[in-house]
Every structure is written in C-alpha cells, then in structure tokens.
Amino acid sequence: MTTATAxxxxxxxxxxxxxxxxxxxxxxxxxxxxxxxxxxxxxTDDPDVIVFNTCAVRENADNxxxxxxxxxxxxKARNPGMQIAVGGCLAQKDRGEIVRRAxxxxxxxxxxxxxxxxxxxxxxxxxxxxxxxILESLEVFPSTLPTRRESTxxxxxxxxxxxxxxCTFCIVPSLRGKEKDRRPGEILAEVQALVDTGVxxxxxxxxxxxxxxxxxxxxxxxxKLLRACGEIDGLERVRFTSPHPKDFTDDVIAxxxxxxxxxxxxxxxxxxxxxxxxxxxxxxxxxxxxxGIISKVREAMPDAAITTDIIVGFPGETEADFERTLxxxxxxxxxxxxxxxxxxxxxxxxxxxDDQLPKQVVQERYERLIAAVEEIxxxxxxKLVGETVEVLVAVGEGRKDERTGRMSGRARDGxxxxxxxxxxxxxxxxxxxxxxxxxxxTITYAAPHHLNADGAPLAHxxxxxxxxxxxxxxxxxxxxxxxxxxxxxxxxxxxxxGSCAVS
Length: 503
Description:
The chain is an alpha/beta fold and 503 residues long.
C-alpha cells in the first residue's frame, strides 16, 4: 500500500532502463521530485509515485515497459491515489500510445521536458486525467535542473545532449534531437561543485562526447575540456563516454596521456569490423581508421584499457563480414566489449533494409563473438596478475562480496577489482574501508570480467567521499526549478475506494 497519510510528504521511486545518460537523467528526476517535496520510498514500500525512465534502443524495451505497467495495474486499482509516470526515449517515441495501451498511466513526458514532471503530476491529480506532454526540442538544458546524486564518490556530468549522426540502426537522434553543447565554464563549475562535496571521479557524458564544441565551432574543445579538468584540485579521476571514431582527434589522445587525472580507459564503439557493414550502418570510418586510433592510443598510453560496442547480425552481414569483425577484435585486444544482436527499431532506415538475417544465424555468430571477446579479455587480464593497482572502492559492484568477505571497486583503467580487506587496523588507520576510499592492492587472480586481489591491501586512504558514504550523505546539486504551481510538499492524497477505470 502507499504510505502517504494526511500531512505527510508523498513518496516516489524511479526505475531506470538504458544507458548512462538515462541513469543521469534519473538523478535529475529524483532531484526535481525532492525539490518539489517528495521523499524517496523505501524499497519494500509501494510509493505514491512510480516513474519509469525508459530506453528505446533495444527491441525488448517496449515489452519490458508494458510488462511492468501490466504488473502495476492491480496495485493501481487497489490504490487509485498512486501515480505512474513514463518518461525517457520510449515515451518520446510512443507518446499517446502508452496511455492508449495502459490507460492507468497518469503522466507521459519526453526526453526534452524532464523539468515538467512535477507540474504534470500535479495537473494529472487535479484534473483526474492523464497528462501527455512531449516536446520536439529541448526546453532547458538538463544540467540546470536539481539533481539527487546516487554516489558520494563518482558523478556524471553532461557536456552535451543529442546527436548529429545518422547511423541507420540508431533511433537516438530522433528521440534526443540535434547536439546541444554546454559552455565550458558551466561544465567546469558543475565539476567543481561535485568535487567540493567530496566526489573524486567524474564521467563526462554525451551521445557523441568527442564532437563537443561543434555547436560553438571549436573542434578541439573536448581536448581542452579534459585538460581544464586536470586543473581542478581534488578531482582524482576523469572519464568520458561515448566517443565516435570519426571525431576522435590526436589532441584528445595527447590530453588523455598528459593530464594526470584523466584515466587511461577508453570506450570506443566499433559496431562492425567490416567496411561494407560500416558503410551500410552509415558509420563514417572504416576498420583501418579505427585500428589506427587504437594504435595511437596504445602508443601514447601502453596501459590503456579499451572497451567497445559491437552489433552482430546487421542486415546483409555475410559470414565474411562477421569474420572481419572477429579479425578486428583480435587485433584491437579489447579489455571487454558490450555485444548486441541486431534488432529492428521502427523508424530507423535499417528496419526496412533487405536481407534481414535469420535469428539462428545471428545467435550462432553472437556466441562465437562472445567466445572470442572473453578469450582475449581473459588473456589481457592475466597480464595484470602480480601488478599493484589503485582501486576506488564502490557500492554494489560485487554480488558475492558478502559471502567472500571481499569489497569491490574500479581500478584507474576501469577494470572491476574484488579485493580482500585484511584484518581490521592492519593497514595504518584503516580500521574500516568504506565506499569512496582509495585502496592499493596486488592482483592475484584474473577472470574474463574481473580481477581478484586476495592479499591484505598495501595501502588505504580515507577520503571525504568515504566520510560522506559512512554518514549516509549523497551529493545534491541545485538547479533552476521551473513551472511548479506550488512550493513545498504536495498535499497527501486522501484514501480512496473503488478501482480506476480501464478500458
């Protein structure tokens, strides 16, 4: 049951699907709701407001959303005062179709008007009718909105939204719009604000992060931004995702190599190793160009860990095309890869292409790709056995940590490390290692997807981020809250009887 009673604040929960951009958007959604007086519900409680922040990239995104909405229908019938909101890319795509298929949904909002959510919830309650508001262009840059950060030690910072590319398999540009860049000063001010709260690591986000600057005419703006982040005292790690090979310039490689706090980790989407498939995908680089970038990165940073995205089974992909992808994988020596089976997305050019491949062919190639990637990533990880690594201790990275007595975190190159904590007090003042602290430890075992360090840590540094984690504090960055009809907590909905009308 919902927990709101007369005079108490309404509670909320956000469920997130998709990419890092969606994860960061959900932090903004939480910040908006809390600025409007809502409080986060306990995981075991039914909240007064459930927000689905959706993805539209994969084929099962639709089924997943409507399945979850269907499961909520009986709960909504028992608690008509509960509100359900759907936002994100799938909401931008499906619009009023969501309410038609699930009429118990109260609010639908798009990728361009996240800031409208609190007022749409109020309006839906007042009018006792669904509110659907989808804008075709950005209403306000999302980073001007209040944000409830989920981590004390690591933060997302959007430097741009939208994408100017026209990849034939991708629906994102039509849902996120053309690229919009923030001014460098605004980005650096947000980074500084996070560092001031104790955050040690930031990840710069963009649909095509290294084309940053296109809107104000500076093709070297991204490299300059990386170097500027290096001037921020207390910022220990800088990452970015995701770049595009066509925009990847030598000055960015130099900035990565020469700026001490920029991590030597690079996520560079390949998609396919076949020039013919890349041409059909409308990816404006070829395999040799891609491998040339990897070679330059490794020459400047021999310790760099490089990850990628690969799509298997694109329309018209032949066995020879797929074998060329395997060749590039073997030459590039990725530390890991996000691999996907091609799926049709209505509204994309690839969805109407001839030569859509049978499922069984795609599945067989996918399994061969997974085997090749894991063989290489395991071999690359084994090279680190005996090496000492710096680990930023994290939350929720190790599912077996409680059973094994380990903790987990990320090395500077992005690899996942599960490490033994040693006896309490064995390392200086390190009686307790906390999320957000820094540990140096020696790798003793390698698997394809992680590293283990089973000896006691060699060093442990307590940090302000660890202090905040221990105290249960998470950073909140302020923003401009627009369009709210009321100030403070929205009034609680009185108990209602009966069920909601559904058709």
